[in-house]
Specification:
It is built from 4 helices and 7 strands. By secondary structure, the chain is of the alpha+beta class. The longest helix is centred in the C-terminal third of the chain and has 9 residues. The radius of gyration is 14 Å and the shape is globular. A hairpin with a 5-residue loop joins β5 and β6. Strands 1, 2, 3, 4, 5, 6 and 7 form a 7-stranded antiparallel sheet that branches.
Amino acid sequence: MPRFIHLAPESLAKRIRRNGIQPTSIRGWGPRWHLPGVDRLVWSFPVTPNYTVSHQWLRELKRDGTKTLVAVIFRVEDSEIVFARHYSEIPRAMTASAAVGIILSQPEALGYEVMVPRRIRPS
């Protein structure tokens, strides 16, 4: 089962431990892409041996003024459908293991992300 990392403000750490990771609504964002039947996503990235690549979004997330972030690591079944993309591309539906394979096969994996279209339970 692939492991993914989700970065969140420290103020949400207790809530995440208790209720899991709640997906973010994408309604009203006016994204350039549309995912049929999906209106909420959990953003994540595969855990890799390279700390910099695994935590690449840290700097971007801190731009909104959040001082401290927590990293939540979770597992997804190999066959579960997720959406993966480079931030400048349209997300593509694929299995979680395929998403990890595509990202890890890149010579430079910076800018990639995986979106899980459901809540991540605390267990």
